[in-house]
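Now read this:
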Amino acid sequence: PAPTMSFFCDLKEAPPNAIFHLSKRFKEDECKQKIDLGIGAYRDENGAPWVLPVVRRAEELIEQDLEQGRINHEYLPIAGLAQFCRLARELLLGEGHAAIKEKRVGTIQCISGTGSLHAAAMFIANYYSKKTVYISDPSWPNHIPIFKMFGIQNKPYRYYLAASRGLDFEGMVADLKGAENGAIVVLHACAHNPTGVDPSHEQWQQLAELCKEKEFLVVFDSAYQGFATGDVDEDAYAVRLFASQGLCFFICQSFSKNFGIYNERTGAVHYVGSSEHEAKAVMTNAELLVRAAWSNPPAHGARIVAMVLGNPELRAQWCQDIKTMAHRIQAMRTLLRQKLEEKKTPGTWNHITDQIGMFSFTGLREDHVAFLIKRHIYLLNNGRVSMAGVNEHNVEYLAASINDAIAELGSGEMAHL
């Protein structure tokens, strides 16, 4: 019989996610010259996904542990794999950090960076009085909907200066000074997405002082530690600085990029508190919320990370693997800038090498992007490109196409969203 009732017949279909829809279009494109600059995932010099050698080795050891009965497929605790949680926070803050020694850091394993942010926002919505979060303009597109899901409304703070394609530090400080005391503030720990523009050490020091003065509840998004510069300690500078200044804050950590385990959804949320009691209170109450959200985290990715970080030989190999990724991307930044300058492409292109991490905010307009997509070069409408998709085989075609787009359509009003 035909259905006699409908509950959602008036609901309109949602538009596709821009990044994953772009990836789908790329995969369906049969052109041999196609280039994928949209998805935030590392590619090797041949444009192929790269499984880190150290991850392959860790998986071999995990398989041996499984065969010999040392591990199994039982549920993990709500807070996740204990060894993973310990090593994850030590990677962020440093093994000998005072906050760790004093047991002022609580950790819950989460479903990568998105799940970590979800857990932090969920806890804040339930246990914190402020309901406004300040997020950089621009930022990772998922930040706003994650907080909005829990009734926390966004206010943007200035971050990107279109004219210089760099950091609008004065605007950022002015907007944060104007924010209400105790507000929630999201900061990118390193390799800001989508701009690739980070504060200097001196600017981070000023931001730490400002956040302390304004009593902000800071939520760090740390998705690129080690991947940004190739140095895990350098990329943890901001997080460690804030902890050393006595601030209390959340850190949302992802291992997708720096371990290349994107589909294992491995991450953690940490709270750096004022005391062991506060850290335990936050985490035990957060566990109650996590239990209702996903109950327990998956084990495989956490075992890979714990195996690597807990073994000195594997950890050394991992540090070399992330240097391989970071340095190749840095080399491609240099090469793309060189090609554009050789062609005398209108505009300045130093921002490509000034920016760091996976992404570059090119400054290309939406019509330039449409031109490039017609040439089978896939990037987001705001001009953000994943530098991981650039290699020695396609950089000449990419530079020539950018040059042609600007020559045909002009360079006016470039460099902003």
